[in-house]
Write a structure and sequence with these properties.
By secondary structure, the protein is of the alpha/beta class. It folds into two domains: 1-197, 4-Layer Sandwich (Metallo-beta-lactamase, Chain A), CATH 3.60.15; 278-345, no CATH class. It has ten helices and 14 strands. The chain has helices at residues 75-88, 103-106, 122-129, 136-157, 162-182, 249-259, 279-300, 305-311, 318-321, 330-341; strands at 12-16, 25-29, 33-39, 42-47, 57-61, 66-69, 93-97, 117-121, 192-194, 197-202, 205-210, 222-225, 230-234, 266-269. It has a nine-stranded mixed beta sheet with strand order 1-2-3-4-5-6-7-8-9. A five-stranded mixed beta sheet has the order 10-11-12-13-14, with no helix packed on it. Strand 10 (197-202) and strand 11 form a beta hairpin. Helix 8 (305-311) packs across helix 10. It is globular and about 60 Å long.
Length: 345
């Protein structure tokens, strides 16, 4: 998590033009978020760095209530999101949609209270109703955050100036606060599950929830607003390469091909900025196809997953995705091997 400069808690209204928008759109700055109004009453919620948020969320205002997509990484982060929603509307949040089960998108659900309707894919429900606190992706994040704190503590002890110490102390306090917030996590599974598609018709909105196929996880869904031609993709589609440790790399390109059949003008990813440069979809599709083929080739030649991760050559994607070094992500390679061996689901 990059340290970001703390921003003012006063409400500011800024204006910008999104690349795909025909009209100017607001960015409403709250104490914890930048809410980009990408359509009338539709806000793309991006953390501003004052609290550990990590992932993006989507706020959809209807005539009498609000639908939220994803709840951030901890209850503390989701409470900040709820406070930000209160800046733009006093309508109650009645529905929460999980784009997928990963901790950085689903661990804040409990802050929304017991009466909220939670919608997710059947796979997402199975994961969150199972043992999500012992999922490898979540456990590895705890190790990573603890390591970050330890590194910052060592840097603080060796800091040479007051200014350097102050900067490191700020980063350390920020990360320690997140580690404490993680202790409050109480996973909540969806109360309503779907398989291929669900559509919500209420309050002047049509909200479609699509499962296009396995990708970042076995249950990624896209949230599509057909009237506004906006698609929230979670982590199945980012502006670049997604985390692959729970992914289905051999199926991912086709899943994105299925996604392309929708008529959308703007993609809102689970991390990073909104985009309308749809060549990016082609770029990541090509990378996933080539990565899978390369790892299968290396595996068939007798290499271990560790050896394949070092030897894999994806440098043909240097110009499009910045892949300039020999090798591939070790977790991605191990995941492909496990799926091929039948030892992963």
């Amino acid at each position: 998590m990059r340290g970001l400069k703390l921003l003012s808690k006063y409400l500011l209204v800024l204006w910008l033009t999104l690349p795909s928008a025909a009209m100017a759109q607001r960015i409403i700055e709250t104490a914890s978020h930048n809410l980009q109004e990408v359509a009338d009453g539709v806000y793309f919620a991006v953390g501003n760095g004052s609290i550990f948020v990590m992932s993006n969320a989507l706020i959809i205002e209807r005539e009498e209530d609000v639908v939220v997509v994803d709840s951030h990484i901890t209850p503390a982060a989701s409470r900040a999101l709820i406070d930000s929603i209160g800046v733009v509307t006093d309508k109650p949040v009645t529905t929460l949609i999980n784009s997928h089960f990963h901790y950085d998108h689903a661990n804040g659900v409990s802050s929304f209270g017991p009466d909220i309707q939670i919608i997710g894919h059947e796979y997402t429900r199975a994961k969150l109703a199972g043992d999500p606190m012992n999922e490898q992706t979540f456990l590895s994040s705890l190790v990573r955050f603890d390591r970050t704190v330890a590194t910052l503590e060592e840097r603080l002890a060796n800091a040479g100036s007051a200014a350097e110490r102050a900067e490191i102390q700020g980063q350390l306090d920020f990360n320690r606060a997140h580690v404490r917030a993680t202790e409050e996590v109480d996973p909540v599974p969806p109360t309503v599950s779907m398989s291929d598609r669900m559509t919500l018709y209420r309050g002047g909105r049509e909200i479609q929830i699509h499962f296009f196929g396995r990708a970042h996880t076995g249950g990624d869904v896209g949230i599509y607003l057909p009237a506004d031609k906006i698609l929230f993709t979670g982590d199945m589609l980012l502006g670049g390469i997604s985390y692959l440790g729970d992914g289905y790399v051999g199926e991912w390109a086709q899943t994105l091909e299925n996604l392309k059949q929708l008529d959308f003008d703007l993609v809102l990813p689970g991390h990073g900025p909104a985009f309308s440069d749809f060549e990016r979809i082609d770029y990541v599709q090509a990378y996933y196809r080539d990565l899978y083929a390369e790892i299968v080739r290396l595996r068939n030649s007798g290499l271990s997953a560790e050896e394949a991760a070092v030897r894999a050559d994806l440098r043909q994607h240097a110009d499009t995705l910045g892949v300039r070094d020999l090798g591939a992500n070790a977790q991605a390679v191990q995941r492909i091997y496990a799926l091929l061996d039948g030892s992963a689901d």
